[in-house]
Amino acid sequence: MSSPYGPEHAPVGEVGAALMMIDSRLKAVHDGRTAIDPEQQALIDQFTASLGPEGIDDVLDGTCTLIYMFMTWLRKAHEDHDKDVIEYVVPSLVASMRMMPKSVRPEAIPTMAGLVIAAGTGLSPNLWRKQYGDWTAAEMNPLETCAFLLAEHINRITDDPDFATRLISEALSRTEEV
Length: 178
Known about the structure:
Elements (H helix, E strand, L loop, with lengths): L14 H16 L7 H42 L5 H14 L10 H12 L4 H6 L9 H19 L4 H15 L1
């Protein structure tokens, strides 16, 4: 039975821009920096400023698409080992977010966990979230953090610091070929 929150009903958004932001954060962490390189941040800021309000919504949808794609990959990887992705991913994700009170306020954690659970069960995270109203400014950092943590989780389990970025880049390349 099809759900109105299924991914086939969701906008894909600007996945490339969302991936660029997440990849910048991943590289900063792996280089031992707590912040993105100022030049890189200036490029990201310039790019997002050029998008306007509708473009920002597209990046938000793109970030949710990343979360969906990451959770789909994680679900398949866990199923290959007869494990439940929700059981193995959500607790560590929540624990990590709880250790980041400057980026993720405690009241945003249940929403982010819900997004990940929605994606892990095959639902669109952005459509699942929108049933509760519009996104809030306070949810933007937690959303980016959530996507970052999922990408980092994938990179750790594959022992490849670029695997998550490459996974999405290759999927985007295949989509463009069709």
